[in-house]
Amino acid sequence: MALNEPLDSEELPCGRSLQDVWESWDEGTTGKDPHYASCPHCSAALAELRALGDFVEQSRAAAPEPPGAPDARAVTTRVMDIVRLELRPGRRLPLGEPDEDAWIVEAAAAKTFRAAAESLPGVRAGSCRIEPLGAGSGTSRGPVRVRLAVTAELTWTVPRLADAVRERVARAAREAIGLDVQAIDIEVVDLVDTMDTTDTTDRRTR
Amino acid sequence: MNGRPADLDARVREAAAAAARSVPGVAFLRPGLSGLLRGRAGRAARGAGAGAVRVRRGGAPGSWEIGVELATLRGHRALDVTRSVRSAVRRAVGEETASAARPAEHVTVTVTVTDIA
User: Fold this and answer.
1) How far is A124 from chain B (nearest CA, A)?
2) Is there a contact between A75 and A59 (Cβ–Cβ < 8 Å)?
3) Residue ranges covered by each domain of chain B
């Protein structure tokens, strides 16, 4: 079922993508485009988005946000992140023992590993790929290899950074997921003076 | 033979979904947010997440294959949640079919974690 959906399944039957609809909503231009008023698919998507926005507003009112609370744009970004995770789950990775029938999609595990890396001060995670250790083994059950790209502040040295991230990822695999990770490759993409934190906020609040 | 096979399949699906949802650490069953936003699948999703559960009868009589896709909650180890879900679903399918013409004898449960929410 969903695992086999084509990558463009965010497209609505009218040909517009959910992203188009949401961007218009973000920019407040849905009223100017007659398509939105006449298209049942876009209207439905917008109605759901409004409902979701209301829900997020309520949650925000209930729980005090840290300084720099996200604006509506950030809310949409967060929603898009969730949707992307559902639409592009990646491969299925085995959980537990070889004779168990439990799995986790790559995107969910990668999200957990990125968050684990970013729990270190001044560290930001980028691309994260997870694959079975035995090459070309598809969805076979066995240990996996994690490749994670990170950027960090200059307070870190590369070896210290790689060790610390590796340790966090290993712990998350063991304690948060239950995934048999046998190799962790950390690629240090860049060391920077100070981390630009403006667009990490969304990911961290997830 | 008592009851129509399709009815029993639907009841087994509902029972499996309810069992999975009741396990601590399960956030929600798929289809989740995107299904909801796409509308058509969303209507099925509102039927208490049963759309996230696939039910198939196995080759042998009394054998069932159940597939569940779900999101777990952070703070719960995903593997432990899948183990609880698998045994809860197995139990629920057994109970639901207990009074059927052919009670479930062999139940295979596959659980896939699609998100840690």
Assistant:
1) 20
2) no
3) 5-116
Domain with residues A92-192, CATH architecture: 2-Layer Sandwich (3.30)
Quote the radius of gyration of chain B (alpha carbons, Å): 14
Task: Give the position of tokens 């039927």.
Answer: B47
- Domain limits of chain A? 18-62, 92-192
**B5-116 is a CATH 3.30.70.1350 domain:** yes
Residue type, A194: T
ipTM of the complex: 0.84
Q: Do A96 and B79 touch (CB under 8 A)?
A: yes
SS3 of residue B100 by DSSP: coil
Quick count: other Cβ atoms within 10 Å of Cβ A16? 19
Smallest CA–CA distance from A180 into chain B, residue: B79
More confident residue, A33 or A85: A33
Please tell me the distance in Å from B60's CA to the nearest CA on chain A: 20
Confidence of residue A140 (pLDDT cuts 50, 70, 90): confident
Q: How many residues does chain B have?
A: 117
Query: Tokens 């879900």 — which residue?
Result: B85
pTM of the full predicted structure?
0.69
**Which amino acid, one-letter code, is at A11?**
E
Given an 8 Å threshold on Cβ–Cβ distance, is A102 in contact with B110? yes
Q: Whole-angstrom Cα distance, residue A18 to residue B42?
A: 15
